[in-house]
Amino acid sequence: MIDLAWGAHSDRGRRRPLNEDSFLAEPPLFFVADGMGGHTGGDRASAAAIDAFGELRGRPIVALDDVERAFARAVQDVSGISTGADAAGTTISGVAVTEQGGEAYWLVVNIGDSRTYRLAAGVLEQISVDHSEVQDLVDKGEISATEAERHPRRNVITKAVGAGSYDEPDYWLLPIAQGDRIMVCSDGLSKELDAARLTQVLSEERSPQTAATRLVHEALLHGGRDNVTVVVVDALRANDRVAEVDALAQLPDEDTLPRVVSTKERTGHGPLQLG
Known about the structure:
Number of domains: 1
Strand content: 25-35%
Radius of gyration: 17 Å
CATH class: Alpha Beta
Shape: globular
CATH superfamily: PPM-type phosphatase domain
Low-confidence stretches: 244-263
Mean pLDDT: 86
CATH architecture: 4-Layer Sandwich
Structural class: alpha+beta
């Protein structure tokens, strides 16, 4: 048995007329998709990619094969969006709850430059690796990570769902530990807040919904140059152990999902029974 609490918040930002982000925050899936800027139909692309995973909602766990089939549907659906001269595209990043040998695991999925982080024992780690031109330069040792944050081509991604790309996402398997806090975000957050600030907010806010909402608001205060979406997931119980946190203390009573609007939220809590 594992027990999760989660929250999500999304906003179009201060400069964009449309929110091209979409998200899924419903066990066993917690994903963020960011429609590619500069491409017409980015909002439809991100929504189509998220919808491709819809039939997996409500399951106690999913297998890698389930996620791979859903991803293939996402590629097909996004590639079929007609936008005229430009091809629609989107990123996808996030986690799915899976099982290995009777133990619960995070299956981390990523393509593009949206990000998945894990906060454990007060340490924030970026699990996903950006598929971007500047990340390639960092990997080659040609620029530093600090220089990458200011590089003029930092918004150019090298892999996506759609937009003429047929690359596979990256996958990681991480054992779920009690007290884990997962954060998934579009680059509208990581552009505005550095790792130190992300760590501080995620450590201070006990409720995942409050953490997600505060991070979005802080991104807006720091410029809000892009759409910004944040999903936060807490493992309250994992592998028969209980987390020493009260992540439900500040959860709202209502569960709402105003999806296709400039501001979106999703909050919840529930147990998952492993097979």
